[in-house]
Amino acid sequence: MSFQVGQVVGDYQVEGVLGRGGMGALYKVRNRISQRLDAMKVLLPSVRSSSADITSRFEREIRVHASLRHPNIAELYTAFQLDDQLLMVMELVEGPTLESLLAHAPLPVELSVGIVSQVLSALGYAHRQGVIHRDIKPTNIVLSRGGAVKLIDFGIALAEFNPRMTQTGMVLGSLAYMAPEQLTGLNADARADLYSVGITLYQAVTGRRAIEGANEYEMMNAHVHQQPIPPVQHNPAISQELSAAIVKSLAKNPAHRFQTAEDFRQALSGYMPTSSSAWPQLAASSSETGMHERVATMLPVEKLPSSSRFHSAALAVLNRNLAQYVGPIARHLVMKESRDAPNLDALCQAVASQIAKDSDRAAFLQACRAEFGAETRTVMAPIQTSAPTPPTPTAVTQASMDPAWIDRLKKDLAVQIGPMARVVVDRAAKKASGPNELLATVAAEISSPEERARFLARHRTH
After folding, report:
1. Where does the signal sequence lie (predicted)?
2. How confident is the model over 331-377, as pLDDT tens digits?
3. Distance of alpha carbon 76 from the chain centroid
4. At residue 177, what are phi and psi to the nearest 5 degrees?
5. Cα–Cα distance for residue pair 147/111, rounded to 1 Å
6. Which of helix, strand or coil describes residue 77?
7. Would you state the CATH architecture of domain 8-91?
8. In degrees, to the nearest 5, what angle opens at C-alpha 47 toward C-alphas 94 and 163?
9. Would you say 180 and 228 are in contact if contact means Cβ atoms under 8 Å apart?
10. What letter does residue 309 receive in the DSSP assignment?
11. Residue 304, pLDDT score
């Protein structure tokens, strides 16, 4: 069951829903005694009854979170059971996530460093308590209305008092921000968190991720093997020294990174916001909307290339407005449509068709009309959108192969190359004409000729 607004749950009254997923829900609640507004995280009964692992992880999150007290970590207040539900009550952090701020454009360098410095302060403390977060990413970094950065979601944190949490070959975390040693199944320590912080800082100052890939396999492979482009090459406002510090945090070998959060934070100290910079301006915002607006005024005008029809400044404004509704893909959409649109009116209409909600689309078109005036005089005309054509089913070659054999292949390959074996086999199976071609393709991922030969011998079908 889910709670309804106004419902009383123990000593708390539900004020609203903050988020909901397949495993649980997060509510805004009011303590009926103290009248304080808190956040309540609930694990759904169906999940508790069907997955002992998820239940154990939630209980572990409660114990780990309860051991931490730091101004940059959202505080856990209490946890309790009510009937067949497990609930956790924590500090309510009202404000945007770093991810939502980055949907518009890269942040100013000083602002980015100020945010990450507070994250490193929280991590330095957690690491000294023997806790590794293991899921540092922009969605888990929240900027509170008071200006303090709060690190949230210790759901997959690893504590020294429970070092056996992760099974061999098991990957937990968010792929785009995970350290190479996490992906290859090696024992990851606190330096894996620092890698994730580096990926996050890189994205904050450049507007793009240091490691990218068209699919899971490519991204995993890039984390392990690909050297990121120094961020200064994407953003000249970044100094060579800061760029080098970010690159150091992204070293493939943990021994070549900063060894502690304090070391990383010290390397960033020269780029921290001053009292007259953007940081206190941001902290002064009294609401999430106000914070977004203040961040927007701090952002430099993004320099999109001009075309024969449109000036770069017009494209930048269009990109910024569209990003509020579709996120970072706005830049790609604007540039793509600008190649064929005959005028600014048509361009606004074209990119507006990518906004799903009618109300949001109308608000975007209204903003276009306000920004560009007479050039978009027909921009408020209704947009006719057709339903997307369903993809044509394609043959799946692995259907003709023995699923048990493919499963054995994945498990055996994982011993050689780590958890990415699953992705490697699935990807190759879609292209292989048969078992022998699949076997040869995945065996090529094994670097040792001797191990490769043994692997082939074990799995040949004839």
Report:
1. none
2. 767 887 888 888 888 888 888 888 878 888 888 888 887 766 644 44
3. 23
4. -120, 10
5. 11
6. strand
7. 2-Layer Sandwich (3.30)
8. 80
9. no
10. S
11. 45
Q: How far apart are the first and last CA of the chain?
A: 53
Task: Tell me if residue 163 falls in helix, strand or coil.
Answer: coil
Domains 8-91 and 98-271 share a fold: no
Of the listed ranges 50-54, 242-246, 268-272, 457-461, the one predicted with least confidence: 50-54
Per domain, the residue ranges of the chain are: 8-91, 98-271, 301-376, 397-459
List of long-range contacts for 59-66, beta carbons under 8 Å, 24+ apart = 59/86, 60/157, 60/159, 60/162, 60/165, 61/88, 61/154, 61/155, 61/157, 62/88, 63/159, 64/131, 64/154, 64/157, 64/159, 65/90, 65/154, 65/157
Residues 6+ apart with CB under 8 A from 232: 238, 239, 240, 242, 243
- Cα(123)–Cα(132) distance, integer angstroms: 8
Longest dimension (CA), the chain: 73
Which tokens belong to 288?
Answer: 């999430």
Exactly one of 38, 135, 153, 345 is catalytic; name it.
135
pLDDT at 159 over 50: no
What is the C-alpha separation between 85 and 80, in angstroms, rounded? 9
Residue 172 near residue 134, CB atoms below 8 Å? yes
| Length of the chain (residues) | 462
CATH 1.10.260.40 corresponds to the domain 98-271 = no
pLDDT at 436: 81
Establish whether 189 is a catalytic residue. Answer: no
Phi and psi torsions of 25, nearest 5°: -145, 155
How many Å apart are CA 444 and CA 337, to the nearest integer?
Answer: 41
3-state DSSP of 31-61? ECCCCCEEEEEEECHHHHHHCHHHHHHHHHH
> In angstroms, rounded to a whole number, what is the distance separating the alpha carbons of residues 235 and 240?
11
State the Cα–Cα distance between residues 221 and 456, nearest whole angstrom.
22
Please check whether residue 268 is in contact with residue 258, taking contact to mean a CB–CB distance below 8 angstroms: no
Q: Give which of 206, 191, 163 is closest to 328, Cα–Cα.
A: 206
Angstrom distances, CA of residue 176 to CA of 43, 136, 200, 258, 322: 26, 10, 10, 20, 24
> pTM above the 0.85 mark?
no
> Token pair for residue 320?
């910024």
| Inter-axis angle of helices 421-431 and 403-417, nearest 10 | 130
State how far the Cα of 42 lies from the Cα of 86, in Å rounded to an integer.
Answer: 6
Residue that the structure tokens 């000249």 belong to: 236
Distance of alpha carbon 250 from alpha carbon 331, whole angstroms = 26
Contacts of 293 (CB under 8 A, 6+ apart): 285
